[in-house]
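Can anyone check this?
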Amino acid sequence: MMMGRFKEVLIFVAGAAPQIITETIYSLSQKKPPIYADELYIITTSLGKKIIKEVLLDKNVLSLLYQEYSLPPISFTEKNFIVPRDKQGQEISDIRSKEDNEIIGDLITSFIREKAKDEGTRLHCSLAGGRKTMSFYLGSALQLFGRPWDRLYHVLVTPEFEANPEFFYKPKKNKTIWIKDKEGRSLRLNTKDAQIYLAELPFIRLFQKLRLQAISFSQLVSEGQKEIDLASIQPELRVNIRERLVSIGNRSIYFQPMLLFIYMAFINQKIKKCFHPDRAYCFECRDCFEELNAIFNRENLEKLAHYYSDLYKGSPLKAQEFLSKWKSGLDAENVRQYISKLKGIIQKELQDELLCSLYSIQPIRIYAGSRYGLRVEKSKIILE
């Protein structure tokens, strides 16, 4: 995160009610400390764009707000409208069909994702306008990609002034607005009586919890759910090295000393050499995977030798014997044979391909070589 002042980016979903835009800008400017927009974007349909442009730009409502409250100037033109297009490249006038919903969902998601890439920005997202599905997509996109400093809002206005075509923000000087009640009678409203409340909505931030690669909204949801399910269904991996016992859920496996030593080397890699200790979940992270020659070279073997000693009730003599036998480190081909035996044992005990892939040592190809590691969540590993 960039130190110092954020670039404040306001993002709205809006339809035929431009009021929510000026009401939100006004409310942010009244906060302590005030928040002034550096950039402003409105995600809307072609019909919404026409109405908002006519009111905010052509009738200078936005400029009047900025002038009245001496807000820092902001550039706002037609380029600040984000309008979905159909497969023929035509702007969509309304969100009605299944296809329209998919298009606007993907548009909102990709826009938030792109804006959230800049750590120097803070997103202020308002879901008060537009179709309800647009608000849903905006909130969901912020859940997927929002950072701790991003904000989500809903603006609430005194019912008599809500969506009133003459009310856009609370002016400094009281103004009179005339409206018709249900019986057609004229009623006078004073703007000094209007209340505008900007509700900040809490949301679950999954940005650093999931490693999402998909593009469309539906694929992102499916991918995210798979990652969450994978993390939640994993049984605990308990290791009692002195008893040479490995427990995966309710399954207990006794390993021969050398096999358990190899397994402990990868557990050590997973826990103690994690590149992201601040992350609660590993998910698809493979940064701790390493080449066999790097894990089992002489220097690292000396650091791991205490595990071999623990296999024999902490006997220091065993560690010395072990290091004397492998003076140049463990040969990678021998290690691969041990890995294959470990996988066979775990597969036989678990009888589950998915779980076996999590708890057995797995390779990944990087450039011309292979790196090895454990996919199981580090939080699921318990050393007894």
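Reply from J.R.: I decoded it. The CA atoms of residues 267 and 315 lie 21 Å apart.
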